[in-house]
Specification:
Shape: globular
Mean pLDDT: 76
CATH class of the largest domain: Alpha Beta
CATH topology of the largest domain: Membrane-bound Lytic Murein Transglycosylase D, Chain A
Largest sheet: 2 strands, antiparallel
Strand content: 5-15%
Number of strands: 8
Strand order of the largest sheet: 1-2
Number of helices: 11
Order of helices and strands: HHHEHHEEHHEEHHEEHHE
Number of domains: 4
Structural class: alpha+beta
Radius of gyration: 22 Å
Distance between the termini: 27 Å
CATH architecture of the largest domain: Roll
CATH superfamily of the largest domain: LysM domain
């Protein structure tokens, strides 16, 4: 999650890994980690100061990199993220706050804050999370992309759902969200249940995708209302339903090995079908299964 957030800020991610010896933590690779026991320790290398290019990049972007890590950690432990100086769509109430002072701070009104947060009085409690703006909009076809500061409760309330229903719709087993995650926010999203979806990655062409899924370029273009052969990385394509594939949504605790075993296939087949170059999965991720 930290790697993903750092990439959004333009940082190049080489790799991440665990360097420890579980049977003897005293031999863990890094001195700092060896000497901070009983905690989830993580060491992040943003770059190397003896490299001129790295040094200049860090000089200009260190604040963005630091905030990227904060966003990821906040999402991982399930707390709202609020940007530097309290900026953002949500604000956490502090000691001494009032609706009037918060409204003034964010250039809004008390009435607007009460409307956004369904408040019937002016009473606040320390630690309470308030929505500051109402620019949350659903994605096309009943989906919503998670933004910084989002929680299951805030999203559920926005779309008239319960947290339990939102988790059920998305096969979620925890309250953790990640920025950029796609959530179903309609009980009956307007998707074509007989079709599968494929996410375009670097190097993809319509011909290559059609060949992979044993279909034709024309069928893919027709299914997606495409008028050209141009593709964008991250674009979701409907794969015509005359193929023997199904879509699986990753839940907490899933591994590629466990999913492969569950569907009587192999890890390599899943990796090849989904163009995966890592075995790391994220909750809510969509996988095509042979």
């Amino acid at each position: 999650m930290i790697g993903t957030e750092l990439e959004k800020e333009g940082q190049t991610i080489r790799k991440y890994y665990q360097r420890r010896l579980p049977s003897d933590p005293s031999k863990d690779y890094y001195y700092m980690i060896r000497n901070t026991p009983n905690t989830q320790a993580m060491l992040i290398e943003y770059g190397f100061l003896d490299n001129t290019a790295d040094a200049n990049k860090l000089k200009n972007n260190w604040e963005e990199y630091a905030e990227a890590v904060v966003r990821a950690v906040a999402s991982y432990i399930g707390v709202p993220y609020v940007g530097v100086g309290g900026a953002g769509e949500y604000y956490t109430v502090e000691k001494g706050d009032s609706l009037w002072s918060i409204a003034r701070k964010f250039n809004t009104t008390v009435d607007k804050l009460k409307e956004l947060n369904n408040l019937s009085s002016n009473l606040l409690s320390v630690g309470q999370t308030l929505k500051i703006s109402d620019d949350i909009e659903p994605m096309m076809d009943g989906y919503y992309i998670v933004k910084k500061g989002d929680t299951l409760y805030s999203i559920a309330r926005t779309y008239g759902l319960s947290v339990a229903k939102l988790k059920e719709l998305n096969n979620l087993t925890s309250n953790n969200l990640s920025v950029g995650q796609s959530l179903i926010v309609m009980d009956t999203p307007t998707t074509q249940s007989d079709d599968n979806y494929y996410t375009v990655v670097s190097g993809d062409t319509l011909y290559g995708i059609a060949n992979k899924f044993n279909t034709t370029v024309d069928k893919i273009k027709q299914a997606n209302n495409l008028t050209s052969n141009n593709l964008a990385i991250g674009e979701k394509l409907i794969i015509p339903s005359d193929n023997n594939y199904q879509v699986y949504t990753v839940v907490s605790g899933d591994t590629l090995y466990g999913i492969a075993r569950k569907f009587n296939t192999t890890v390599s087949e899943i990796e090849s079908l989904n163009n995966l170059n890592t075995s790391t999965l994220s909750i809510g991720q969509k996988l095509l299964i042979p």
